[in-house]
Amino acid sequence: MDGETQPFLQQQQQQQQQQQMVPLQDSYMQSRAEALQNVESTIHELGSIFNQLATLVSQQGEIAIRIDENMDDTLANVEGAQGALLKYLNSISSNRWLMIKIFFVLIFFLMIFLFFVA
Q1: How many Å apart are CA 77 and CA 67, to the nearest integer?
Q2: Can you give the pTM of this predicted structure?
Q3: Where do the segments described as Disordered lie (predicted)?
Q4: Exposure winner among 1, 4, 49, 51, fewest CB in 10 A?
């Protein structure tokens, strides 16, 4: 009997050990499944973040192009204003000589008037 009870006891112990391992394996599998779900949700969130980033980058690219075009327009306007100011400066310079000439003519006529009429 001793010989027969030992294998029977060993079988029972093995069954008990296997039964104890089943809940451990189930909890391990559940934790792995949860970890995979977390990884999947994180990857999904990253995908949406990258989509938003791509949208922002394309919008910023459009804004940069508009800024560049506005800078070109501004440069053209500044150059035009500089040309207009140079024309005005030349006009003022020539007007000064005209004013000086008129002033001398008036003084000349005033001197003639004072010497000959008065």
Answers
A1: 15
A2: 0.42
A3: 1-25
A4: 1
Rama region for 104: left / alpha / beta (φ>0; ψ in -120 to 50; rest): alpha
**Spatial separation of the C-alpha atoms in residues 12 and 19, rounded to whole Å:** 10
- Residues with Cβ within 8 Å of 91's Cβ and at least 6 positions away in sequence, in order, are none
Note the pLDDT tens digit of each residue in 7-62: 666 777 777 666 666 666 778 888 888 999 999 999 999 999 999 999 998 889 88
**Torsion 72-77-82-86 (CA) sign:** positive
State the Cα–Cα distance between residues 41 and 47, nearest whole angstrom: 10
**Residue 81 pLDDT level (bands cut at 50, 70, 90):** very high
Distance between CA atoms of residues 80 and 82, nearest Å:
5
